[in-house]
Amino acid sequence: MAKLSLNQAYEYARECHRRGALDEAVGVARQILSIDSKHWEALGLMGSIAGQRGRDEIALKHFKTAVKIQPGSPVIQLNLGEAYRRLGQTKAAISAFKRAISLQPQNDRAHNNLGVAFREMNDLKSATKHFRMAVERAPSNIDNQANLANALLEDGVSEEACTLFGRLALLAPSNAEIRLKHGTALLSQGDRAAAKVALLESIQLDPGLSRGHDMLASIIQQEGNVELAIRHYQTAINLDPAFARAHSNLGNAYITCGLLDDAVSCFVRALELDPSLALTHDLLLYWLNYSSKV
What we know:
17 helices
């Protein structure tokens, strides 16, 4: 350190950070701050490393201090917003992301993260707006495109979402999650055959994708192959025992086979996991009432 200027030391700390030598990077950043307590870039680096280590409260503290020193840095404002969002302080995160955008309107990451925050607030219109802006600024960024497609799908704009997921499936052919979402979008468009293909591809890419097995099972059940559907529902539950919807769907399949006791058990378990499943509640009451009369 004695032979380096503060800027040179900071660049060395950044290089340590890039190659994963986090302890060394923190050590150098601390030495910098012991000489210049207002070195906002070193504070920002400390915040980034704390965030990587899951110490979000500490990260937030460093970013807030850095912002007070250098409020005109879009990077620090962006990192501050991310720290707020990880801590569940979404409104504060939105304010920080907006400041980052006002300082650097072409920053696709700031628009994308603002979109994520709006989505968490269930403001899908605002989320879609900023995801579009992120895609416009970085058309080749797959994450930005995926976030836009997800927001469109959640907002009921299934045709455009379907087109985007189809494009993403070509850009990222090994991404099982994108295949799953493409299948979801196709199903919402009523294209059951194409949805089935996409869902099969999703679980081929990732056999542990419980939602893929559940959605595929629902299509297979509609086709009349209840035995195969049951196997996929059971696989979904084995992969994720807390998957309430899969328990409920398995119960429906058991009813088709006349396995009433098994169906009731599935409905009870589904409601234990998610009491908000109104349809499952109604089905359980109906079949309990039916069984009492048989």
